[in-house]
Write a structure and sequence with these properties.
The chain is mostly helical and about 90 residues long. It is built from 3 helices and no strands. The two termini are about 40 Å apart. It holds the Pfam family DUF6809.
Length: about 90
């Protein structure tokens, strides 16, 4: 089921492009890189990679939670509709 949810997430999620925050992060990253040694630049890149992975994990968890909520609501509404349908 996890694979299906990952496929759905990949299909429906589109990463925001060129947001003001992303531009600020990139600009600050370039400024920082200019002032760091090679070893420190690697450390900064690892931190950025970890941050990006954390953001992805949180986004995916939110998607999965929303999916299960929608699934439960759809089931409840389906059962409610069956109980309220007119008898022939």
């Amino acid at each position: 089921m996890e694979d299906i949810l990952e496929a759905l997430y990949g299909n429906f999620y589109s990463k925001p492009q060129n947001t003001p925050q992303a531009r600020r992060i990139e600009a600050n990253h370039r400024i920082l890189i200019d002032h760091l040694s090679k070893a420190d630049r690697r450390l900064v890149l690892r931190i950025i990679d970890d941050k990006d992975q954390l953001i992805h994990d949180i986004s995916f968890d939110s998607f999965v939670s929303g999916f299960w909520l929608a699934w439960r609501l759809a089931n409840e509404l389906s059962q409610y509709g069956e109980q309220k349908s007119p008898q022939l």
